[in-house]
Amino acid sequence: MNRILSALVAGLVFGIGIAVSGMANPAKVLNFFDPLGTWDPSLAFVMGGALMTTFIGYRVIFARRQAPLFDAKFHLPTARTIDARLIGGSALFGLGWGISGFCPGGAIPALGFAPWPTALFLIAMGAGILLARWLQALPRRQTA
Amino acid sequence: MVTEFTPFASFVGGVLIGLGAVILMALNGRIAGMTAMLGGVLEPQSPDSPWRLAFLAGAIAAPLIATLIGAEFAFAAPTTGVLLAIGGVIVGVGVTYGSGCTSGHGVCGLARLSPRSLVATLTFMATTFLTVTLMRHVFGD
């Protein structure tokens, strides 16, 4: 129960941050990537504020504690390989982000104050996630 | 479409995003990546599903409650429904193969100085820039 409540609190803070920052506004996000046109550099301040806080916060946590408050250990990603899957997937994500103006972290909070057309994007994104998981589950072709 | 330059609100919003990530790490020991959170919806039988759903619920509820008590957030989707749907499918495939998005790689991963997240973030920032530039200035009007 503690873990669920703490995730809810973290989600509330994260979600209000996304809304206040402008990350949930596709027009603003797209303008960050348009220095040749209607440029809006605000997103650099979002990334700056978020990275600074997380960088310092993580260091304080890891220096002072062996484990989080409500779990036996920290669950940190263990993957180290930089491969075609990581780069190709990230490249595709950027293509979709550039077409739509939505990233997953922006779209979820946007659902709370602009349900349409955010829901359309999220349904399509869910379909894309399921499609990719299905493709990943296919048996690998044998290579001679 | 011109949008207002909001350095102060964007910085404060960014600090709050980071604070959400720090809270989740301090209390639950988890990375605040939205791609992983969506697994809470898609794998309801997973033991991680309940807390992931709670995070998603909080992320949706906070702006909803804020607007109910009078806050206003600028919003415009300057594109067509067809492009939103196509973009959505591509984002879904991309974040699944790339194992993360702006929150997981771009904030939490970079804060941990993960080389994987640095490569992922530089890659998607570059292709987003290329896509917007091509759509607006090469193939656009």
Automatic annotation (TrEMBL), chain A:
Membrane-crossing segments per the record: 42-61, 82-102, 114-135
One Pfam family per UniProt: DUF6691
InterPro entries the record matches: DUF6691
Keywords: Membrane, Transmembrane, Transmembrane helix
Name listed for the protein in its UniProt record: YeeE/YedE family protein
Organism: Rhodobacter calidifons
UniProtKB/TrEMBL annotation, chain B:
Keywords: Cell inner membrane, Cell membrane, Membrane, Transmembrane, Transmembrane helix, Transport
Residues that span the membrane, as ranges: 6-29, 50-69, 75-97, 118-139
Membrane topology designation: Multi-pass membrane protein
Predominant cellular place of this UniProt entry's protein: membrane
UniProt-listed InterPro entries: Sulf_transp_TsuA/YedE (IPR007272)
Compartments (UniProt record): Cell inner membrane
Statement: the UniProt record of this protein carries the keyword Hydrolase: no
Superkingdom, taxonomy of origin: Bacteria
UniProt similarity note: Belongs to the TsuA/YedE (TC 9.B.102) family.
Protein name: YeeE/YedE family protein
